[in-house]
Design a protein that fits this description.
The strands form six sheets. This protein has a two-stranded antiparallel sheet with strand order 1-3. It has a two-stranded antiparallel ribbon with strand order 2-6. Strands 4-5 form a two-stranded antiparallel sheet. By secondary structure, the chain is an alpha+beta fold. It folds into two domains: 3-49 and 251-271 and 367-500, no CATH class; 97-236 and 292-340, no CATH class. It is built from 13 helices and twelve strands. Helix 7 crosses helix 8. The chain has helices at 3-22, 28-38, 78-92, 154-162, 242-246, 250-258, 294-306, 345-356, 369-380, 447-450, 465-470, 477-485, 488-500; strands at 111-112, 143-148, 180-181, 190-201, 207-218, 230-235, 271-273, 280-282, 391-392, 406-407, 415-417, 435-437.
Length: 501
């Protein structure tokens, strides 16, 4: 049996299992429809039905330019658009330190990575690394540095096991290195990157040069870190389609985990702590699927990246630790007449509404012969084992605009071991140091239309889509090797397909 037949059978089985066994939101008639529409294609002679609408009715058809990731879902109500626009203003707003005459916009820090959400998510797309040329490097706010140490106490081990603690923070510097601070407070340090070229030989006489990063932290403001600290650089991800990813039924994601895709691929879920419900639930967001909802991901970013308190993360001093004298108990920006947090619940709701309704752009060139050829190669290489093409969202999704939509995100939402080359050694909830969530591919071809300096992978090391593919290892090694073995024209077709997404 050919590889593509095995892959199609596995995808079809996962779709059927999800639609039949676990989808408690569907009628019997719905289950038949969903299984049919999400079945993997076997015909690559032309585009599939509705393939030009990757976000269903929410797909935006706006003019392709640098603002293409910043439009609201096309099916938002008038009231929803009003809330979206308010959230947009908050997402772009620069926060300032306290005390300030600008009430309800102060409270930044005391230590932080960025002054605004948009400061990391450039035009709602990918962030930017400092640069590969040492002579042209600048400060970055979009490449964050996670910090972790092994557990020392039974309490820490229990918190890790229960999911209440995603990882053990470095005792002095916390969960994340903050490279900026307010006046009178030393910043924690700065990240430096060295790159070493690695040449990969490709079939057809071609080669590619990968840039292998080495990270170090300079100018530590509070003394040395623990010698056993592990660091994990993370670049800001695109914001489009998040609400639709949240509306994928858990049964569909778990069906992917249980399917046999061949090549030793065994994606698994990350079970994390939901601060809203107090329960362990399926992780969906960020590089290791360690956040369960868009709301919690946004609230964590306000706290960790900007030092702003909110209902889910109420500490006014953000990531300040007891070992950082002068950082705690600084003036904060909570206004009594607005509530006890610097980002009150009402403002968090606006930001969440904005974040879950940034629209996915319409597909391009779906009928192009070379794009169709690249799509077939994508299937034949078994890329679809992890980058699962399509789903139908829940009928009972929390928001009307996300309900029962056929979407094409190209992700299984699961963790996969990507090999030693991409490993960061940092475990987060159930995710090991070499495991990463499969990132959605929708919109990936417009990455540099939105941010000309954007790069790919979790730390931005890949300067092209081909480089990103060639870094794949572990469970993705076989798929990566098939790409290496393609002819130059075939690899070009594969990239053309990716660029059409």
């Amino acid at each position: 049996m050919s590889k593509i037949v095995v892959v199609l059978a596995a995808l079809a089985a996962a779709s059927a299992v999800a639609a039949s066994g676990g989808r408690d939101d569907l009628t019997d008639e719905d289950r038949v429809r969903v299984a049919k529409v999400t079945a993997p294609t076997k015909d690559f002679s032309g585009p599939e039905a509705f393939e030009t609408l990757p976000a269903g009715a929410g797909t935006t058809r706006k003019l392709i330019n640098a603002d293409i990731f910043s439009h609201p879902s096309a099916n938002l109500t008038f009231e929803g658009r009003q809330q979206f626009l308010v959230g947009n203003g908050l997402f772009r707003k620069d926060w300032v330190s306290s005390p300030s005459s600008t009430q309800a916009s102060d409270g930044l820090g005391p230590m932080f990575n960025a002054r605004s959400c948009q400061g990391c998510h450039t035009k709602d797309g990918r962030g930017t690394v400092p640069g590969f040329d040492p002579l042209e490097r600048g400060d970055t706010v979009a490449l964050l540095l996670r910090l972790s140490v092994p557990p020392d106490t039974d309490e820490q081990r229990q918190q890790l096991a229960s999911g209440h603690l995603p990882l053990v923070p470095e005792p002095v510097y916390g969960l994340q290195l903050q490279n900026f601070s307010v006046a009178g407070v030393p910043s924690e340090g700065r990240l430096e990157i060295d790159y070493a070229p690695v040449t990969v030989q490709l079939n057809g006489g071609e080669s590619a040069t990968l840039m292998k990063p080495t990270y170090r932290i300079e100018d530590l403001g509070y003394g040395p870190m623990r010698e056993d600290v592990q660091i994990s650089p993370r670049i800001a991800q695109p914001m489009i389609g998040l609400g639709l990813l949240e509306a994928i039924h858990p049964a569909d994601i778990l069906a992917n985990a249980n399917a046999d895709h061949g090549d030793g691929i065994s994606g698994r879920p990350n079970w994390v702590h939901d601060l809203r419900t107090g329960k362990r639930t399926l992780g969906r967001f960020n590089w290791k699927a360690s956040q369960p909802t868009v709301e919690q991901q946004s609230a964590a970013a306000f706290s960790n990246d900007m030092g702003l308190s909110n209902p889910l993360f109420p500490a006014h001093d953000g990531e300040c630790t007891q070992a950082q004298p002068g950082c705690q108990n600084k003036p904060h920006g909570a206004q009594p007449h607005l509530g006890e947090h610097e980002v009150p619940a009402e403002l968090m709701d606006f930001v969440t509404t904005y974040s879950v309704n940034l629209a996915v752009p319409q597909r391009r060139d779906v009928s192009d012969a070379r794009v169709l050829a690249g799509k077939k190669l994508f299937y034949q290489a078994n890329c679809v084992a992890c980058h699962v093409p399509k789903y139908v969202t829940r009928r009972d999704a929390a928001r009307q605009e996300h309900r029962f939509q056929l979407i094409w995100p190209y992700t299984d939402m699961l963790l996969h071991d990507m090999g030693e080359g991409l490993a960061d050694k940092v475990s987060e909830h159930d995710a090991s140091g070499s495991e990463w969530r499969t990132p959605p591919l929708w919109g990936i071809g417009l990455t540099r239309t939105v941010n000309p300096n954007a790069t790919w992978l979790h730390d931005g090391r890949a300067r092209s889509l081909l480089e990103a593919v060639l870094w794949h290892g572990g469970e993705a090694q076989a798929a990566r090797d098939r790409v290496v073995a393609m002819t130059p024209d075939e690899r070009a077709d594969l990239i053309r397909f990716l660029e059409s997404l």
